[in-house]
Amino acid sequence: MNGPEILFYIPIFGGLPVTETLRNTWIVMAILILLSLWLTSGMKMQGISKKQVVVEQGVKMLYQMVEDTMGKDKLFFAPYIGTLFLFVLFSNLMGMFAMRAPTADLNTTAGLILIYFMLNQYFAIKCHGLAGRLKGFVEPIPVMLPLNIVGEFSTPISMALRLFGNIASGIVITSLIYQALTWVSNLVFGGITAFPVFAVGIPAVLSIYFDVFTDVMQAYIVTMLTMVFLAMAMD
Amino acid sequence: MEKAIVLGCSALGAGIAMIAGLGPGIGQGYAAGKAAEAVGRQPEAAGTVTRTLLTGCAVAESTGIYSLLIALTLIFVNPLVGML
Predict the structure, then answer these.
(1) Which residues are bridge partners to A8 per DSSP?
(2) Assembly ipTM
(3) Residues of A in Cβ contact (< 8 Å) with B72
(4) What global pTM score does this model have?
(5) Among A4, A75, A79, A123, which is most buried by a count of CB atoms within 10 Å?
(6) CA-CA distances (angstroms) from residue A144 to A79, A135, A136?
């Protein structure tokens, strides 16, 4: 496994590298923008199409989930949560189309979690006031101060590392499977053909778990944890 | 020679680091068992229980992910070889 390849340099500030991760992120953004434009075009009040029914049901489910997890007073987070879920889901699933998943790069996940961290700090201060927020660090006893400060930073760090670790380990396992299958086919059919016979079809079955299941699960878990921790910081 | 020793010990270290996978496995299995019990006792709360279980499992997984990252670092971007 190697890091993301550097495709070219943008010639400002002494050359900004554009990596595979960045290109695939742009692709995900383009897909999401075009998909939203297509899904929201031609919306009607009467005689609605099947497309509109599906979209409305999805949005309703999102709002229901946010209400169940965060409470009725925090429904305004729903657009952010939905965007986060869709972006992470599509990024994770990029790995299935022979492109490096943007979330298999710590820079992407750290950026996503940085947004959450800023929101968390802003809304915690807005809900409790600066004094109340600082007072929260010395509760229940002042001795807990260092632990509380470490806990404040370790939660976002572990969230970023969790998403990155899960997706990156999927890439490692997939490449190991391909190497092993190539080795086995060389052992069996080595004299006949150099084509890795076993590497056709078998990885697809395994990738249902290592790619599809893990990817959807991690996208769900990231949004879920974001909702839970945001609600906890505000209450 | 020195490089061979460092590389060999890094590979061993990566393997030993992954022993930490034991902890999350036991913890998540325990949590899943308790969740199954809870659903058995209160089938109408299955949705809430599943959601709580998944969130809890994700948090319990952290230590396993940390050890995985250490193992990956030791194998793919070994910082110890550069110190020679």
Answers:
(1) A18
(2) 0.80
(3) 1, 165, 168-169, 172
(4) 0.85
(5) A4
(6) 36, 12, 10
